[in-house]
Hints:
By secondary structure, chain A is mostly helical.
Amino acid sequence: MKISREDVLKVAGLAHLGLSPAEVELYREQLDAILTYVDKLKELDTSGVEPMAQVLHAAAGSRGEEKHPELREDVLASCDVAQPVLRGAPEAKAPFFRVPRVIATGEVESE
Amino acid sequence: MKTPASWTVASVRSALADKKISARELAAEFLGRIERRNRELNAYLTVSPERAYAQADQIDASISRGETLPPLAGVPIAIKDVISTRGLRTTCASKMLGNYIPPYDATAVERLDRAGAVFLGKTNCDEFAMGGSNENSAYGPVHNPVALDRVPGGSSGGSAAAVAAGLAVAALGTDTGGSIRQPASFCGVAGLMPTYGRVSRYGLVAFASSLDKIGPFATNIADAAAVLSVIAGHDANDSTSADVPVANYSAEAERPVQGLRIGVPEDYFGAGLDSEVKEKVQAGIALLERLGCRRIPLQMPHTDYAIAAYYILATAEASSNLARYDGVRYGLRVPGGTLTEMYRNTREGGFGPEVKRRIMLGTYVLSSGYYDAYYLRAQRVRSLIARDFTDAFQKVDAIVTPTAPTPAFSLGEKSADPLQMYLADIYTVTGSLAGVPGISVPCGKTRAGLPVGMQIFAPHFSESSLFRIARAFESAGGFAI
């Protein structure tokens, strides 16, 4: 067994996912099957192989071009999107998003 | 007025130029088809008559002023619902974004708009583009127009079904591990995954950022080439978009294929491949040989490891990208007593089972103690798979394979076993990891009448070669082989 109930609960906690008890067991079984399958990567000797994080660098490298084509000059540009963005929020009070209280009452001046 | 069942970019253009139909009438024709067929297909999640008619009216005004028409003038197009459209609901087929209205257009959408396209609406897909059958949509599965009890493939199932059913001339989809090519194969249309970086991802809701690509679906190669010519190109808003010149793909598609070297990897024709699919794709390759292509057998030794590497990398990236859905800035919020409870409740209520499964797998492989064993190892294997392609392209101009191991399967057939569903991506994920372009073209039908797809890969930024081979194949009757 690759993964226990406790592992599932720990991972769900890290990912901020609420799970029912039935889901915990279902995901445990399914993740176990998937993790067992992906173990086949251990058959390969990958020592000395560079990890590939991004295609463009690999593609640019193979064509002998500059390695960081994504870099550009750092120039200010207008970005006047606050209003439409706030309109999409579940709860907002311009210019802020509102969330449940994260600091106990009394620690900051109330509204 | 009589309207042909299947419009193309070229036939729309000549009908508008000859004033046989107005752009508004054409939009109305397609919106009417959607009205009649969408109930059984569930291909569209949102239909956008307002935007369609506004765009069509601009084209009609332009025609009446005698102006030169832009390349996709009046062409009715559908857009996968993971691509942002200004003022038009973009749900990602998730409850999490059920009422999300983007404040801007994705770059690909903006380019289609400028090219005169008419947007019919947003198409159904697997939730956040995670799936291979479209059964993971929070708004119900899409039905394959060829056989209603079958899946259309996924994740871009709605786009593929819309084009196959004549509910759009072309559509945008997205492909991370096969999500354009496999549904194209299942529905009997053409679908292109461009090179990573060929089309800007700005405005595409991220699933796995190092693998996501936007590309077209169409019923014919000329239309797919016309759409790619419009949406391709560098974009300052996507730092991973490539500053590589965009070819005139429509012209490139017409070049002859005589003498091209076609690699056929033996690893793609082994166990697990449906015998009828194998027969059709081999007949397709034989046709390419008769057209003057040279067949060269290939070994791609790391193919068997692609699924494992892909599902580690894609889920790791997804777990990070989907952390943004926390009920604060957009989409669903399920209240909770504390901030953390609000996060948990929102994510529990907003995500469906496949998305949760992938977030957990991705979180696990990135978590302390497992990072090297899973994530880093998978990145190294990704290099080996990319190297298989680089080595192959020393010897051949293109690689030809089946797109999927089977034709469209029945609704519900695989949905209980996620690993079995993942294994069906075997022929598409290799190219996804390497970042090379791939196209699926129709390659006949099984005896039961289900479409088969043939996949072609080419080196980075060689979409021209794909279109050339696909067009020659189409002209020679390969689609109905």
